[in-house]
Design a protein that fits this description.
It contains 12 helices and 9 strands. It is an alpha/beta fold. It has a domain of 211 residues: 3-Layer(aba) Sandwich (Rossmann fold), CATH 3.40.50. Strands 1-4-3-2-5-6-9-7-8 form a 9-stranded mixed beta sheet. Strand 5, helix 9 and strand 6 form a beta-alpha-beta unit. Helix 1 runs antiparallel to helix 3 and helix 3 packs across helix 5.
């Protein structure tokens, strides 16, 4: 990576800017909303009330603007980084599909505002790897969120086979193998650059993980072979019309008694926070987020043959999975993390 004083200063500035957006500007706008809601004036509707707040346009503009600045800064650091040297290192394995045609819903958006997406170039995976840390405001540098998910949201049992759907560059897959070393662990993703980096990073950690290029809704793996199907931050990046197929595929893969655990986002019941989250998707080129947040995924999972389907809240700071669907009160902007849980009846 190209890491000069100038590029490091650029990254530090953007990270500091995004932190102030989260811990200073967001609470200020929320205070304006609470003050306006307490007035006796006729209620014009939630969206009008929020959009008419003096500071909300600045909040919205800075969210998108700082996201663009972040990716420009990250690209400066990773400009000369390609994955041509990232051959899969033993014991990790990599299976690419030379005939796979990437779907248009996947390629037509620069998801997260990362220029070119995570699939288009050799350097895209390295850019995504660094950017994924900074997007979380520097609080996930050691992938704590993913370790908390594995440590707190997965039933403690002996797993023989685990599949991680939408594994990206592997950050959600490595903790699975570390926590359950005896299990066969498979990571699935569409992005060839990310999969190459996944296998390389797993090899560096001496993790025997199988990475495959495939669609999460049609993996072409044998039915009834998985004890655990997981994903982290995949569901909100799928078009609504594909979500039923995702649950059908997960149900097909699970053997009797297997479990599903998806870490993603949900509405909290706080109207201001929920609207800001719904609009976050459009500000960050995540067009499928709002439809997902408004959809009934529990019913979709049940219709696919899964049982005991429920959402549980998740606190990414230290607690991980919480015992119900109630989020702790927090002043700063943060994602409404939640775990979708289900089982395949024996």
């Amino acid at each position: 990576m190209t890491d000069t004083i100038d590029t490091r200063a650029h990254l530090d500035f953007v990270l500091a800017l995004r932190r102030r957006w989260a811990d200073t500007i967001y609470p200020h706008v929320r205070g304006e909303f609470q003050h306006a809601s307490a007035s006796d004036a006729p209620d014009p509707g939630l969206e009008t009330r929020v959009h008419d707040l003096p500071s909300y346009p600045w909040f919205a503009w800075l969210e998108r603007g700082s996201q663009k600045m972040l990716w420009r800064a990250v690209e400066d650091v990773t400009r000369d980084d390609t994955d041509e040297h990232l051959d899969a290192l033993a014991p990790a394995t990599l299976q690419l599909d030379p005939h796979l045609v990437l779907p248009q819903w996947y390629t037509q958006w620069d998801i997260h505002l990362q220029p070119g997406g995570i699939w288009s170039t050799r350097a895209a995976a390295a850019t995504y790897e660094l950017g994924a840390k900074l997007v979380m405001l520097g609080e996930n540098d050691d992938y704590k969120f993913h370790r908390l998910f594995v440590d707190t949201a997965l039933p403690v049992r002996r797993y023989h086979s685990i599949i991680d759907l939408g594994c990206g560059f592997g950050k959600s897959t490595w903790p699975l193998k570390k926590r359950f070393p005896q299990a066969e662990v498979i990571g699935i993703d569409l992005s060839e650059p990310c999969l190459r980096l996944s296998a390389h990073r797993a090899g560096q950690q001496d993790l025997a993980i199988h990475f495959r290029q495939a669609d999460a809704t049609a993996t072409d793996l044998e039915s009834g072979t998985m004890d655990l199907v997981t994903s982290t931050m995949l569901v909100h990046e799928l078009p609504l019309e594909l979500m039923p197929a995702l649950f059908v595929e997960a149900s097909r893969l699970l053997r009797a008694g297997g479990v599903l655990r998806f870490l993603d986002f949900q509405r909290t019941g706080d109207e201001f926070r929920d609207l800001a989250m719904l609009e976050h998707g459009s500000r960050n080129n995540e067009p499928y987020m709002a439809p997902m947040l408004l959809a009934d995924l529990v019913t979709m999972a049940r219709d696919a043959g899964l049982d005991d389907v429920r959402w549980m809240a998740f606190d990414e700071r230290n607690a991980g999975r919480l015992p119900d669907l109630v989020w702790p009160t927090r002043r700063e902007w943060h994602f409404p993390w939640a775990v979708l849980e289900a089982e395949k009846s024996a």
